[in-house]
User: Which sequence fits this backbone?
């Protein structure tokens, strides 16, 4: 169920049956020559709705702008600085908590968000610890779809050492499956992008001219995306179910 298409009385009724919600979180940032700017938001959102087809669970609006300042050297990227994203997350959690949500499952599609999401969780728990608000019954979880066991297994099988770490064939495949009318085919050279660590936007663009890191997303296909999707939904259905019982 999609929160945005429900009415408030429908949400009130849902809360009598469940206090869980999945919040997809991603980014709007360059993903190399054939990767969509919305890759990191489209992937977790697609998986979230895949989970919702198999069980009754509410899906919050996707937080589609994340901590991506290092991609600002490429047009189309929109970024929140870590402190802004942290403030957004605290307000989102406290809004949902106020209504009775107690199990908030952040389904993330962007590695750059991980540290800030975890910092936001600590900020919220600290607000409870310091007595600003009693939220001792709140449960928060960060789940990175790309770390699901089935995803790792399939991406290793299909892409091996051409998976890389940014604009990966796995994430590009999943968007090709989710958005078949937007598939792009773009030649890239070298086929496998260079590896390295990143600092700010200028450094990133200087080191990684076409935006990729260590990856060969020319290998991406919608068929691979469908396999990754199915495996991830299976893994996360179980993971979300376990989380609800904590
Ligand atoms: Ni990505």
Assistant:
């Amino acid at each position: 169920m999609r929160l945005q298409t429900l009415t408030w009385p429908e949400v009130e009724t849902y809360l009598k049956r469940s206090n869980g919600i999945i919040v997809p979180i991603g980014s709007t940032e360059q993903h190399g020559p054939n990767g969509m700017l919305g890759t990191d938001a489209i992937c977790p959102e697609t998986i979230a709705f895949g989970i919702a087809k198999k069980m009754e669970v509410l899906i919050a609006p996707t937080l589609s702008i994340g901590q991506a300042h290092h991609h600002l050297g490429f047009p189309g990227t929109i970024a929140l600085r870590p402190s802004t994203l942290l403030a957004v997350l605290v307000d989102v959690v406290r809004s949902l908590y106020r209504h009775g949500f107690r199990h908030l499952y952040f389904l993330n599609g962007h590695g750059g968000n991980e540290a800030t999401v975890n910092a936001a969780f600590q900020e919220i728990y600290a607000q409870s610890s310091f007595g600003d608000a009693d939220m001792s019954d709140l449960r928060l979880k960060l789940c990175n779809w790309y770390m699901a066991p089935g995803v790792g297994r399939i991406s290793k099988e299909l892409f091996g050492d051409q998976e890389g770490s940014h604009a990966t064939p796995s994430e590009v495949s999943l968007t090709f499956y989710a958005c078949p009318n937007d598939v792009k085919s773009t030649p890239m050279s070298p086929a496998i992008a260079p590896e390295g660590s990143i600092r700010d936007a200028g450094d990133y663009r200087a080191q990684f001219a076409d935006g990729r890191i260590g990856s060969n997303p020319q290998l991406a296909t919608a068929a691979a995306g469908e396999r990754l999707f199915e495996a991830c939904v299976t893994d996360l259905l179980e993971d979300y179910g376990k989380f609800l019982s904590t």
In short: The radius of gyration is 18 Å. The chain has one domain: 3-241. The longest strand covers residues 20-25. The mean pLDDT is 98.
